[in-house]
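Saturday, quiet lab. Running sequence design on the structure tokens for the scaffold JK sent over.
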């Protein structure tokens, strides 16, 4: 089930180490990473939760991300959270981007450079240091998921050194940690300049909006989980609200989007109809086209003219 080319994983589970709500500037670091991912056209974005989980969901509820909990969140190994995210995205995307939440200051420019590079494992490299985010091809994901040796994620990736490339970037944000508050604050102005981007809120409406990013995510999760309730759990949406959204979408399109099946030994389930799946895929293609056009035109009209640098 591939709806998009590139998915993202943000590990924010450790109650001991992760600080997803640490505010740098006017927003928490988890939002900085989500914005950077979205600016690179990444969908879906999976946030592996644990630390301050309820507030993280509240902060990101309108950002169209998927929440998957790490049940062992008191002191988890980073690789465990990575595996949770990778397992979910396996088979859904051609490439995957991973970062821990505690390294929030890489720029969207760096991320786009990593995505443009060819390699099964692409790691950014600056001032003699490697950092995050790391881009993975779908081919290496099963090997990381299956890794059971010592040394965690670093050792898992090192075990595939012949498939890894280091991409030089001019971005110290790839290794600035939340533990270094002085460096975070010093890098803030530069990072905010890099975050500048046009935002297009693409909706469908007649008298009122009946399709937007949030409903798109609901359809995506129904397709994946075959359950409206499970979809709601993963996107912090109420069950009743989800059905209101689906019913309105079907009334406006004039055809069934979701197929409900009742009964059976395993209970009922819900999935997308063929028309619903076609609608979702076509909408994603429309979003991709508009995203690419908008980024290009913004660069030509604003950056190249010197109105923004």
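Result came back. Writing it out in full:
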């Amino acid at each position: 089930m591939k709806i998009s080319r590139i998915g993202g994983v943000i590990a924010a589970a450790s109650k001991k180490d992760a600080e997803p709500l640490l505010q740098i500037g006017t927003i928490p670091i988890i939002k900085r990473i989500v914005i950077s991912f979205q600016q690179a056209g990444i969908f879906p974005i999976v946030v592996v939760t644990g630390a301050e989980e309820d507030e993280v969901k509240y902060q990101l509820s309108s950002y169209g991300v998927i929440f998957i909990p790490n049940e062992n969140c008191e002191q988890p190994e980073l690789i465990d959270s990575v595996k949770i995210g990778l397992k979910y995205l396996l088979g859904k995307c051609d490439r995957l981007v991973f970062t821990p939440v505690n390294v929030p200051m890489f720029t969207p420019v760096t991320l786009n450079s990593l995505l443009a590079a060819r390699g099964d494992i692409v790691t950014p490299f600056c001032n003699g240091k490697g950092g995050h985010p790391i881009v993975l091809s779908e081919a290496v994901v099963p090997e990381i998921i299956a890794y059971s040796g010592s040394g965690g994620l670093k050792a898992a990736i090192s075990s595939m050194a012949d498939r890894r490339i280091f991409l030089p970037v001019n971005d110290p944000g790839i290794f600035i940690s939340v533990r270094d508050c002085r460096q975070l604050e010093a890098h803030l102005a530069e990072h905010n300049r890099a975050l500048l981007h046009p935002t297009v809120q693409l909706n469908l409406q007649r008298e009122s909006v009946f399709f937007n990013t949030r409903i798109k995510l609901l359809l995506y999760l129904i397709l994946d989980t075959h359950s409206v309730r499970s979809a709601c759990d993963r996107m912090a949406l109420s069950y009743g609200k989800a059905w209101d959204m689906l019913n309105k979408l079907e009334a406006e399109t004039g055809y069934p989007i979701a197929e409900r099946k009742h009964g059976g030994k395993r209970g009922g389930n819900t999935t997308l109809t063929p028309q619903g799946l076609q609608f979702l895929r076509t909408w994603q293609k429309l979003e991709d086209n508009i995203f690419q056009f908008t980024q290009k035109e913004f660069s030509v009209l604003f950056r190249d003219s010197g109105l923004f640098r």
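Notes for JK: The two ends are 39 Å apart (CA to CA). Residues 18 and 139 are 29 Å apart (CA to CA). Ask whether to fix the surface positions before the next round.
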